[in-house]
Design brief:
about 160 residues; alpha+beta; two-stranded antiparallel sheet; 5 helices; DUF177 domain-containing protein
Amino acid sequence: MIIKLEELRTKPNQKEKFSYTTSEVEDIKLLSPLEVEGEISYIEDEIFVRGHYRVKVGAPCVKCLKEVAISLDGEYDGHYSEGEKYSKHMSSLKKECDIKENYLEEAVHGEIDITELVREFIILDMPPYPACEPACDGLEEMEKYSKDDVDPRWQELLNLKN
C-alpha cells in the first residue's frame, strides 16, 4: 500500500487510520493473506507510521527442508522525513554513529510504501532456524556422520586439503 504525502499534508497533526490485505510480498512466501492495520500522522514535516500485522508464511525446515508454516502476529513502526529535512538529518550524522530509536527513513517521491515497511518487520520476526518439529527426521542424516566418520559427499574436499 502506497501512501501519498500530499494527502497527509492537508491534515497536519492528525492521525489517519488505514487497513488493507495483500496476497503478495516480495521475497516472502505467504500461506495466508497479509492483514495490515495501522495509523499514520504528519507532524512538523515528519511522518510517523505504526500498526499491527497478521500473516502465515512458509519457510523451509532447517533440518529436512520440508515447508514449515509460521504464524506471525506482530507490530511495526516507521519514522520518515522527506526532502531537505532528511538531507539535513543525514548530513548531521557522523561517519560512525549509533542509530538508536530515532532512525529516520526517507520518503521517496512523496510516498511511503507501507508493505515494504511491514515486510522488513516480518523478516525480523521470523525464527532464525525454523523447524517442522523439534525431533525432525532430518537429523538422521546428520547423526549418521556425527562421529569421526566423514560424509562421503565432503570426502573429495578433504582430499584436496591433504
